[in-house]
């Protein structure tokens, strides 16, 4: 049960449509469920506004499917599974109805929610090679109820490609800038927009890129004041953080 459902429940009590005992019974669900190999935090949405997300890497398909089934039993409408390989997705899909997006390695159980954020999140990638991480960020944002616009292959090597989208960038509530190599895209965008920029360094690049460390250090040293940085290839973390920005009232 998330914050919206809890508020609706309390409103029903206030309106006399539900007794206090009936409401208490609904809220008395165990805060976590022990499956033996996993302890599912069913009250996370109530505490944080976002339900638990399944990290698919290193879990077996049976474990992933069992966790998703337990979440469905507790009434979760949309379940996000990150870092899900195509092979695991094929097996999970035989046990639960799964929408698999291979580019971002994201599995979605249930329907994507209607966007209810305050504005739009723009996801920009430096190059085509950065798209898997960018898609992880974009799909995460969409699964958390955000309108999302993708601007891919708009890196600084051809700056006119980025400048052609100034209107979309300047009207965003938050921008996710995904780039490898030297990671300059985040600083450039940060100097153009008045909203927060979430920078995602990727492991794309030649030898001296050091698997994304060069882009990470560039982004951390950005002279654009509105730039915050997540870990290398952490599209999920960027999408989650941008969603928090887009759902927070002034």
From TrEMBL:
Pfam family, one: AIRC
Domain PurE: 119-250
Domain of life: Bacteria
A Gene Ontology BP annotation from the UniProt entry: 'de novo' IMP biosynthetic process
GO molecular function: hydrolase activity
SUPFAM superfamilies: N5-CAIR mutase (phosphoribosylaminoimidazole carboxylase, PurE) (SSF52255)
Record-given protein name: Nickel pincer cofactor biosynthesis protein LarB
Species in which this protein is naturally found: Anaerofilum hominis
Gene designation per UniProt: larB
């Amino acid at each position: 049960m998330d914050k919206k459902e809890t508020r609706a429940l309390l409103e029903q009590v206030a309106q006399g449509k539900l007794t206090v005992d009936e409401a208490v019974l609904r809220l008395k669900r165990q805060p976590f469920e022990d499956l033996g190999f996993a302890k599912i935090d069913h009250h996370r949405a109530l505490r944080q506004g976002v339900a638990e997300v399944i990290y698919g890497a290193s879990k077996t398909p049976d474990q992933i499917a069992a966790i998703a089934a337990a979440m469905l039993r507790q009434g979760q409408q949309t379940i996000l599974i990150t870092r899900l390989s195509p092979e695991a997705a094929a097996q999970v899909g035989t046990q639960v109805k799964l929408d698999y997006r291979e580019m971002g390695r994201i599995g979605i159980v249930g329907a994507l929610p209607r966007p209810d954020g305050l504005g739009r999140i723009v996801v920009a990638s430096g190059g085509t090679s950065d798209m898997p991480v960018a898609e992880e960020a974009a799909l995460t944002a969409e699964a958390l109820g955000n309108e999302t616009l993708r601007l891919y292959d708009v890196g600084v090597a051809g700056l006119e490609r980025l400048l052609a989208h100034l209107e979309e960038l300047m009207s965003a509530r938050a921008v996710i800038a995904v780039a490898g190599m030297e990671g300059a895209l985040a600083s450039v965008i940060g100097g153009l927009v008045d909203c927060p920029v979430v920078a995602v360094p990727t492991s794309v690049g030649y030898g001296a890129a050091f698997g994304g460390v060069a882009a990470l250090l560039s982004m951390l040293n950005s002279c654009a004041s509105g730039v915050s940085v997540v870990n290398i290839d952490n599209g999920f973390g960027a999408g989650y953080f941008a969603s928090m920005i887009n759902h927070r009232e002034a």
